[in-house]
Amino acid sequence: MQEKVIDIKKLVKKSDSAVLKKMPDFILNLLAVFVRQNEINHLLQKYSGCQVGDFLSGLQKELNISIDIRGKENLPENGKCFFVANHPFGFADGLALTWILTRKYGNIKAIGNDVFMLIPQLRPIIAAVNVFGTNYRDYLVELEKVYCSDIPISHFPAGVVSRIQNWKITDDHWHKSFITKAVKHKRDIVPVYFPGRNSYLFYCLYLFRKLFRIKTNLELTMLPNEFFRKRNKSIVVIIGKPISYQVFDKTKKDSEWARWVKSEVYNLKPAGIN
C-alpha cells in the first residue's frame, strides 16, 4: 500500500496548534473525509513523478475542467513580469494561472501558501510564504532570489481567498509588496481576472465565524471540496494589458498603487459575467 501524500493525522501532530492536537481520532477521521483526503491522494499518486505541466494537464483532464482564456494576446513575450490576480476560488484559480503561464513560458515561480509545498509536483515552482503568520528567514531569502530572476512570477496579492466584503464577493486589501518589488526589479505587471465564486456554504461559514468571533479560519477546510466542485465546468481567465513598472512613480504610495492595480483587475470583469 502506497504511503499517503496528504495525511491529516500526521499534519495535525506536526502542527503548532494545541487545539488540533487535542482532537480525538474520530474527529480527525471526519476531517479527512471532509477535505477529500482519499481523492487528493489518488490524484497525487496517479500523477506521481510528473512535471508541473503534465501534472496540471492531468488534473484538468481528470476533472474535465476547461480553461477559457480571454486576452491571451496580452501575454508579453518577455515573461519577466508579475502576473497578479484576484483570488475567488482558492485552488482552481491558482492551478489555472500556473497552467497558462507554464504553457507560455515554461519555467515560472508562483508565490503561494506554504501548504502547497505538501504537493510534490508543485514544489519546484512554489515560492512559499506563510500567509497566516511570520515568514521564516529562508522563505524571505528565497523570495528575494525569485524577484531578482528573469522568470515570470504569479501572485495573488490579497494572500487569502475572496470573502464577502460589503455584501460583495471580493478580495480583501492587496498587500503592496508586489508594487515595491516590481519597481525595484523592473518587472511589468500583468493584471488577471477570474470571474466566479465558491459555494454559498463557504461564505455562510465565513459569516458564521465572524459573527461568533471565531479566529480559526474554518472555511478553509472547504477549499478542497470547492476545487472538486469545478468538475465538468469551465474556468474563465481574463488577461489584461501589461502595466509598465515605470507607471508606479512617487505620486502615490505603494499601498495606493496596489489598490489601483486591484481596481484595474476588477475592471476587467465583462458585463453580464458574475
Task: Explain how this protein is built.
The structure is a single chain. This protein has 274 residues and is of the alpha/beta class. It is built from 11 helices and 9 strands. It has a 7-stranded mixed sheet with strand order 1-9-8-2-5-3-4, with helices on both faces. A hairpin with a 2-residue loop joins strand 6 (163-165) and strand 7. The protein is globular and about 55 Å long. The mean pLDDT is 92.
Level-1 CATH class name: Alpha Beta
Structural class by helix and strand composition = alpha/beta
CATH topology: Glycerol-3-phosphate (1)-acyltransferase
Order of helix and strand elements from N to C terminus: HHHHHEEHEEHEEEHEHHEH
Principal-axes shape call? globular
- CATH architecture term: 3-Layer(aba) Sandwich
CATH superfamily: Glycerol-3-phosphate (1)-acyltransferase
Q: Gap between N and C termini, in Å?
A: 44 Å
How many beta-strand segments?
Answer: 9
Q: Average the pLDDT over all residues and give the rounded result.
A: 92
The rounded Rg comes to: 19 Å
Helix content: 25-40%
Which regions contain 5 or more consecutive residues with pLDDT less than 50?
A: none
How many domains, in number, for the residues? Answer: 1
Largest sheet: 7 strands, mixed
Helical run tally: 11
Provide the β-strand percentage band.
Answer: 5-15%
Widest sheet: strand ordering:
1-9-8-2-5-3-4
